[in-house]
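Hey everyone, long-time lurker, first post.

I ran two proteins through the pipeline my lab uses and got sequence/structure pairs for each. Pasting them in order. The first:
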Amino acid sequence: MYGNLGLFIGAGFSKAVMNNDFDQIALSWDQLLEKASEKLDIDYGDIWKEGVSYPDVASSICVRYSENNDCTYNEALSKLKRQLALLTSWYPDKENREKYSNYLNNLDAEWIVTTNYDLIIESLLTGKSIPLGPDESLTSPKDQVPVYHLHGIRTNPEGIIIAQEDYVSLFRPNEYRQIKLALTIKESTTLLLGYGLGDVNVLTAIDWSKNVFVNKQENYPHDVIQIYRTENPKDAPYRDRNGILIIETSALTKFFEEYSDTHERLKEEKDKQNVALHNLSAQLESPDEDLINKFIDDKEFRIELLKTLSTFSTNLISGFVSFLNSCIDETWVRAEPHGAFEAYDQGLTVLLDILTTLKFKKIPPALLETCAYALQRVGYYVDDGHGKSWQANRTFECRKGELSSELVDELKNIAEQHWYTNLRKLMRRVNA
């Protein structure tokens, strides 16, 4: 509904797409560094790794290479990055490309952030995505999914982030990347695929999204959800100490298949709902006499329709404003016979039901102004004097306390703006 789903994709996703029981094409960071060391004639087993991060391991490889080949550290680092670019030249076969392409298309993500150097995601979203490096803004042309390679992209080896010093720039104060990531997570439902939350940069962005950019008035779906692969997955989701929702699965393909089944079912339900809303909107825009009379005379039907309007105001508001005008016009037709004062009460009751059933902040401006004008018209007769509707007066006295103070203030403003004297008198009576 909001279209604010974002994906964080890690090495586990590339391995799921590329690897099977016979071929292990895609490599983890540890395997990549080992393979790159082999290409650079460095004994990977001789590099100290216990309790050391991969960026530190990469730096050690560069130091060893520069010592062995009498070159500068920066030259060694450049050599390592070029090897990583060559080693991540991975392309899914036709079968997996079609399968995982469908999976990603079903997710319909607004943006993708990946720590991978490879272009597997772009292979799966051919013509629908644009690859971005860490020095580029997380934006894209319309109808294109931005794929932001947080640690660099293999087509630009020098921009690959792997050694310890490469990470230093990621934590500069007010760095665009860090702020953008935090805000993007804050404004999205973020799904982690093949990603173990081992990157401090991403953990910091998640922490900022929860604790720095605090917004108490969030009215949209937002959460961080991690799809965690394990041999014995738990049936129920749970939250970790960082508040991240964990969904366990035995394989990413199993998660995607379950999601696809659920997505298809919900899509069918949504399509049916949209058809029903379209039909209802059409009825409201061109109502027949029976529908108008039922809305005026059947309180239960009226309240149910108003609740539907509250939930789907975007779909129905245009037709409903037109429909309401037809209903108010009908109450005035009913008031034409001599002594038909109950018609004024009917019109007033309809208006009060609208203004008390819908929350003030959810009432569209056009509907509020329509109600204000209708109250101005009927307000002349809401009194206990001669020629007035005593029944309407009793209804207003009984129900005026249901009107929220915010709504009353806004109706007073409208009355002052348009010189609605009858509406002004009614609102003065609310606090009397």
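...and the second, right after it:
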Amino acid sequence: MTRRLVCVGAGLSGLVSAYAAVKAARAQGTSIEVTVLEASARAGGNLVTERHEGFLIDGGPDSWVAAKPEATALCRELGLGDAIIETIPENRRVYLAHRGGLVKMPEGVVLGVPTKLGPMLRTPLLSWSAKARLVADLVLPPTEVPEGDVSIGELVARRLGREAAGAFVEPLLAGIYAGDAWSLSARATFPQLVEFAKRDRSLMHAARAAAPKRHAGGAPPSAFHSLRDGVGSLVDALVKALPEGSVRFGSPVASVTPGTETRWRVTLADGSHLDADDVVLGASTHLAATLVRPTSAPLADALAAVPYTSAATVFFAYPRRALAHPLDATGFVVPKREGMRLLAGTWVSSKWPHRAPEGTVLLRGFLGGLGREGALDRPDDELVSEARIDLERLMRFRAEPLFTRVYRFRQTSPLPSVGHHARVAAIRALLAAHPGLHAIGSAYEGVGIPDTIRLATKTGDAIGRG
């Protein structure tokens, strides 16, 4: 008997879960029919790669954390092993915006926590009172870590002071989550720091002990991996690996309700329906909430309780001669205290090889984020202008771009705020009452590509094994 799986959404979650289910079923000699329903005309969700005039542009995420093996392993499994690339060795550093300019991040900062005192005492990024407060971390009595949740900003500020947390942790989290350090959960974002705080009286000492060791005289190891042809090539490989016709575009789902002949019925916006033994909700939790509300209002409410924000990326191509800055880093992050519209910037052609033609550069700016989602309602030319003003101010140049590109990601960035694990546990408990219904994605166990792949693989494998 052939089992039927329907995945809602052809983003990374839906594609990987379908792929894992097919693989698991084949391994044990059983049959499974998978259908991936996608409302838009393309697969990949936030993973979007385009080529334009010789430039390679990843509109959304452009990489994954190398220390988490799931994405790299999947790429190798799909035949993309030779296409995996690392960041350009000589540029493995980052700048911070400071008083309208750019200052290099002091050496030895791990997850926003300093591990070397000397660079901290020399940096202009902190006042002398903040530096004194930082030193106190080495001698103050242990700080009790609450049994419940706490914001990452508060956790770090208790040991290092609020100014240091605002200078290093806050912009780092804004760049990753487009959120706020004082509301994001420490346990959900950087659980390593929670363990540091439990294990050692000094947060700096614990971070230093856990920091990866540098090879003498060499560049630090690449913290990120990507693909030679952009992260969109992973999406293409997943679609190709599925049975032909499995992915249906232009197929928005209206509801997921209990079936009569099978466990579930998936009704599309055009009134047609699919019967399924298992349904994977790979969409955002707020979209999933609308789909399951006819079945379970409590589950819908729990899904809808996960907060999200929106962000946009703006790309600029320039002749290299137009910029005097050495562009000797992967980019920069912007502390909130700078009062800028940009959250962060990537010097794409300095971060990755072969992203721009010879003699040109490609830059990316991030706009929007928590409390500033309204930026996405403005037309492209206004977003370009806002990002350009901050870029030119920070990098001390003025030039007409060769071209610009704008990508909007509305309500696609989950915010794991304080209490996140409890919210996810509530969702899982309610799902347990509905066998065959699965909710996965970046809102549950981590926002990164490897985190998404890990959860989707685990889910699809379990479905495929029956």
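Reply from user beta_strand_b:
Welcome! Quick read of the second one: The chain has three domains: 3-46+231-306+418-465, 63-91+308-414, 109-210. The longest helix spans residues 449-465.
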